Structures are given as structure tokens and as C-alpha cells.
């Protein structure tokens, strides 16, 4: 990727910051606002302040900086916020994606669009890439729409695009405390028992942030070589785990005894089980996770202890 000009949207977010810190070449980091405790090393990148919902800004930035590859990560990712205020979520997640795809159509930029395992909705497990997009609630549906639009722009206009669908990412730098790993890690950093808002039975799959980054890196390299256009890839590294099992693993990694606090609340639109097959990524990209759940949790807990204890 040496010499390649890469634009990363959502660059100071959780995944975006880790990706920017890992990319070679000339990295242009698009951020809408400052994020406290962001892991982004701003000395390594060129900062662009702007919003993906501004189509003119996106197109002008790509032209001005001769961008060859855009990794579109910018999104409103908090499910509860999407349920309360769907319009801003749709504007960012759908129209922001349209603006990036339109710029690619006009300027020939290669694009990676970040979808999600949530885009599959509720259907047979594990999810595989050929399944339809069936998100039924605001965040899930916004990701389904973004995913389908990426497919549309490839099939209609032949733009050089690929799609990523990741399991639940965890690791240092995630300050979305509505998620189970950050909330449990923060509680442990403060020497408190983790709280499970649900009854603990929903099943999810997880991926450590550095393994997620390695998946993106493999895909970017393939796309830079003219491969994988029009393809979607699932990335998940752990076995499916119930929320209770995940919290117990976090407590074990922290050497904390006892049981978490289980509130037994129900969240509207919560799908009971979601997990992916990553066979395609392993076969076509040569990707495989390198960090075990235990090791990933220990690294994660160490960061929360350092920042919040």
C-alpha cells in the first residue's frame, strides 16, 4: 500500500482509530468531532474535519487529496440511540454511504463499505454472505440499506467496492458503554460487579479489534491489486457465546470471583442469536484471527484499568 492515498471515514472512532494507526501509505483521517479517549495517533495521519452527510465535502476531499482507496466506517452505531432517534441514524448510515458510493462512481475510487452482522436480521445461523439483508429495526435496517446500496452500485455501475460484515468488536478504546465488553470492563476497573441488562441469554459472536483490523488490511491489499470487487466478507473470531458466558469470561480474565448482576430487562428489537461464518474470508483473503478471547480480554481490561481506574 506504499504510496496509496487512503481516506478513512469515522477515523477517530473505535475501529477507525486502530485501522488508521495500522495503515501504510498516506492516510487521510476524516472525523466529525473529537472523541474522548480515541486511540487515533494524529501524528501519523492528515486530519480532515467534516461530515459524511455532506456530499460536496466528500467529493472535494477525494479530488483534492487524490484518494485511491476509501474505507467507509463512519456511522451512528448505538442501537438504543437509533431506536430513540432513527432519522439521524438513517441520515448518517444510509445517506453518508450514498455520498461515498457516489464519489466512487464519479471518480473511480476503490471503496470498502462497513456493514454489520446486524444487517442480516433474524434468519438461519450461522450467517453466510449470500443471505439476504433483513434488518428490521432502525440500526439494523440502516446497515441493511447501506449494504444493499453498495451491492447496487457494484452491479449497476461496476464501481470497485467490497463490503465487510463484522461480529461484535471489542478491545482497548471502545467507550460505547451500552456494549457489554466496555460496560463490564469499566465496572471491573472500578472494582464493581458487571451488570447484565438482559437475562444473559442472548447469543453473540465477538472479534478482537486487532483481528478486525487485520481483516481490513487483507481486503484492502487484495482490492489494491484489483481483486475482490463486488464481494462481501464476514469476520468473526470467537465461538458463539451468551451474554452471561461473555461476562463470565471477562470476570475470569480479571480474576474476579462471584456472579454479575442480572437485571433481566428486555430490549426492543433484540435478536436472540446472531453469529457468522468466516469461511469465505479465510479462503479468499487468507485471513484468520490471531488473538484468543482470553488474551484479547486481558489486553482490553488492562486499558480500561489504566484509563478509568
Describe the structure.
- With 309 residues, the chain is an alpha/beta fold.
- The chain has two domains: 5-169 and 206-235, NAD(P)-binding Rossmann-like Domain (Rossmann fold, 3-Layer(aba) Sandwich); 171-204 and 238-272 and 291-308, Alpha-Beta Complex (UDP-galactose 4-epimerase, domain 1), CATH 3.90.25.10.
- The chain contains ten helices and 13 strands.
- The chain has a seven-stranded parallel β-sheet with strand order 3-2-1-4-5-6-11, sandwiched between helices.
- Strand 1 (5-9), helix 1 (14-22) and strand 2 form a beta-alpha-beta unit.
- Helix 1 packs across helix 7, helix 2 packs parallel to helix 4 (86-107) and helix 6 runs parallel beside helix 8.
- The radius of gyration is 19 Å and the shape is globular.
- The model has no long low-confidence stretch (mean pLDDT 96).
Q: Briefly, what CATH class of the largest domain?
A: Alpha Beta
Strand content: 15-25%
Task: Specify the overall morphology.
Answer: globular
CATH evolutionary superfamily of the largest domain:
NAD(P)-binding Rossmann-like Domain
Distinct helical segment count: 10
Count of distinct strands: 13
> What is the correct CATH architecture of the largest domain?
3-Layer(aba) Sandwich
Q: Extract low-pLDDT stretches.
A: none
